[in-house]
Write a structure and sequence with these properties.
GO terms for molecular function: feruloyl esterase activity; metal ion binding. With 516 residues, the chain is an alpha/beta fold. The protein has 15 helices and 21 strands. Among the domains are: 1-134, no CATH class; 218-379, no CATH class; 473-514, no CATH class. It has a 9-stranded mixed sheet with strand order 1-2-3-5-4-8-9-16-17, sandwiched between helices. The structure holds 2-acetamido-2-deoxy-beta-D-glucopyranose (NAG) (6 copies).
Length: 516
Amino acid sequence: MAASLRAACVPATFGGLGLFGAEVLSIEAALVTNYTASSRDFARGTQPSTELDNATFCNVTVSYTHPGQEDNILVETWLPIENPTWNDRLQASGGAGWVAGRQAFSYETMAGSLADGYAATTTDAGLGSTVDPAIWAVTSPGNINWYSVNNFASVALNDQAIISKDVVESFYGKAAAYSYFNGCSQGGRQGLMLAQRYPTAYDGIAAGAPAMYLSRTGPSLYWPQEVMNMLNRYPYGCEMEAIAASAISECDGLDGVVDGIISDPDACLALFNPSKLIGTPVPNCRQAGNETVEISTAATVIVNATWHGVITANGAWTWHGVGPGADISNEGLVEFEIMGTAATNCDSGVCVGRPNQLGVDMMQSFLGKGDPNLDISKLTYSQFDDMIHYGRQIYGSFDTNDPDLSRFRNAGGKLISWHGLVTALLSDTPDFYRHYELPGLGHCIGRASGQPTSLFDQLRAWVENGTAPEHTPVDVTVLDGSLQHRIACPYPEVAKFEKDGCEDPADAGCWSCVAP
Ligand SMILES: *[C@@H]1O[C@H](CO)[C@@H](O)[C@H](O)[C@H]1NC(C)=O
Ligand SMILES: *[C@@H]1O[C@H](CO)[C@@H](O)[C@H](O)[C@H]1NC(C)=O
Ligand SMILES: *[C@@H]1O[C@H](CO)[C@@H](O)[C@H](O)[C@H]1NC(C)=O
Ligand SMILES: *[C@@H]1O[C@H](CO)[C@@H](O)[C@H](O)[C@H]1NC(C)=O
Ligand SMILES: *[C@@H]1O[C@H](CO)[C@@H](O)[C@H](O)[C@H]1NC(C)=O
Ligand SMILES: *[C@@H]1O[C@H](CO)[C@@H](O)[C@H](O)[C@H]1NC(C)=O
């Protein structure tokens, strides 16, 4: 078997590939042997860390175009031959940031999929692996490349499903028994897009922290900086960190357990007023050369705005903020924490804004259409509002907010999302769609919560055996640094510590899912 598969790893095996609306430009197929790689749990999102050792697989890269659109898209698929052998299944991995896939992170995810026996696939959506979307989204200043935007938003995702399934079938002589999609952040958005627009693309989808309303989420990443710019005040990160720490200590116990984790951010927002901290001294401020500084009024306003979310000049709320307790200033210096949207850089007592790059890209490249004369640090409130409004008008293709998932359900699809603002999609869906909130988790990775590493196998059992997932185990690091085994529950249920007959919150058996 292995010998014949090795022999089949040549372009001619894949000669029959076809896709309506596309033209195959070239096919590469190369045998890869003795491939060894580590795949960390956060690269896999919903699966545990694993090692791929001495694998033999066929690496097939299909290059195709949509004739007339001048695009060139690469779908790369790894087909296991030995160590391990194929498990009869396909797993597609999603992108991150402004990258559709086919970057180092995708390859790490794919190595993990391969280690479990899946055929693994990724697409670059024709955009390459650049992290700067201006390169593909802006044809020339003022002109958006709508073909690229559509490939990124949706089209290439469905192409990838069709092409990779064909590649699998051509190689093994039989179709994959089941096909899965797994992604977080941009990858989570891709997963929801697939369920909503291409309901037969995958049997099972795991979508983490989906950037659901990307046309609004994108600019919201810049919002705290806009507030700083309008105030012309750029606080020390330690001021904002101290405000967050105060919120954590005040709101922590609301869920019955003092563990450093805020489980109910809305209740915390209602309870906690940062203004009372104005003037509070913060010792050992890193950005102030370890001197003591006082919490400024500006810091409280900026932190408050970051938590409450985007509000127009007229006071209308337009998009969510981040939960109190998040590392918005990047002062926590949590490894891989990328979402600090209210960060500053300070030198000799003078601070400037340090915006989140994804937010800058949204403002500059997408909403600003690559205008070299646009200085987003100088936007007035009404200019900022206008850009967001415009973005909602023209970038609806990014958004994955269609609550009609009936076609996906009818096709037998199963969807698990985890962490994020997806509750609008969740009315009466438990037979095919469940959502898990992980209060201690950062954006896809980091902070107090570990990854929900059993979710993918629970999704698989749901798809293949009809066993719907209930709670899922998750490890959290609590205040004293120790690791506790907890559970995350399908929304709207929440995990509750049962004190009766149970002493130890570190025992997962002491937690149960209850209606809120
Ligand atoms: C296989 O890979 C390992 C580790 O990368 C390396 O030490 C070894 O020499 C390789 N073996 C062969 C036969 O290439
Ligand atoms: C690596 O895999 C190849 C092909 O499956 C096998 O022949 C070889 O013995 C393996 N090497 C080790 C060190 O396991
Ligand atoms: C698979 O092939 C593509 C195209 O040649 C190449 O870019 C990629 O690095 C290869 N991957 C591996 C793991 O060999
Ligand atoms: C501030 O304190 C940190 C941690 O103790 C230390 O690493 C750093 O060098 C100090 N910075 C200055 C400017 O003294
Ligand atoms: C925080 O933001 C909310 C919502 O915009 C607002 O009602 C409240 O006055 C703000 N509080 C502070 C201290 O800025
Ligand atoms: C489905 O059920 C069978 C029989 O109980 C079991 O062997 C198999 O592992 C299950 N598959 C999944 C994906 O859970």
